[in-house]
């Protein structure tokens, strides 16, 4: 038809469609990912800048004489640093980490550093995986990161169990950056699934903060563990957004922009319904905190805002074509912008010094998080996400126990009724009433 009309109509339509796609794709900014999320409060965001500094402390050889301390220091007392493991200690099976007893915030913190580009052992952890290789707790996870998490738990299980028992009011926090974030998220899952190894620790005492995490678990797991795992993403960070297997990313590290652009175009053409129903597709774990500090077509950084949610669809599915996609992955920038965001929150919160008001706001935050968590579980079930679970009862397994108790009560009532009927039949068989109405033994 285009030849008969003398105009390449089909070609023109195709070119216009491609131009429209490219225009929309280039206009997609990081702010679009979280534009419908709620704002984080100062109380819930407070641990994140502090924990970022704890991760930075892992890079120091001697905390008593630090070389790269941020303004204000790391906030760590060297006397309370219980242990520090290097690559020699872990034998390359896990990244280096520290265990710190934070009395000021009543917290037991295990902080894991990020990828070391000069260490082959870190690449070995990343390369030990392929999509669908490892199933765990009804979903799929990154095999290498799970093995590293298992090694850390085996190595520090005794120490952690003693600390949890000695400080029953302290929380147990796992935190990491990049590669370490994936290990921390896997470690949290393993601990929650094996709480008996830490003296049957309450699930509410366990938490994780994954800073700039890699996609390491399937969607059903990412949503189900959102009550204990939190992910922090700075603006355009590429790693939480790309579903490219980690081994492909770091094999192509020196042509990473080309790989990201190609992957960006490929993922944009895949319908989101197909993505959601792929049980092997990995995602950033848990509840998401998105720090937004730049706006489209504007130069420089703006006062950062933090949005948070437990999204199911639209969960950082699109790579942002930005010159800051790699720099926003740096832990130094994340710590700096997270602290700026927290300072702004504290300035706006005029009632931060009122303890009663703080307690009320904390309760409101917990209630909101619980509601969002249940809504995300229900949303995953509605979208037919593979292996998605229905929202649990507010009282854990109360419903199951209630059904069990109900069944038990029915059984007991049935047994009691049968006993009563047998007793009545026995009395009727052997006893009778006399003329005065008294019960007397029947004559044989």
UniProtKB/TrEMBL annotation:
Keywords of this entry: Hydrolase
Domain Mono-/di-acylglycerol lipase N-terminal: 9-75
Biological process annotations from GO: lipid catabolic process
Pfam family, one: Lipase_3
Domain of life: Eukaryota
Protein name stated in the entry: Sn1-specific diacylglycerol lipase alpha
One Gene Ontology MF term: hydrolase activity
Lineage, highest ranks first: Eukaryota, Viridiplantae, Streptophyta, Embryophyta, Tracheophyta
All copies of domain Fungal lipase-type, residue ranges: 109-244
Renumbered residue ranges of the record's region Disordered: 380-422
Biased composition (Polar residues): 407-417
Residues making up the signal peptide according to the UniProt record: none
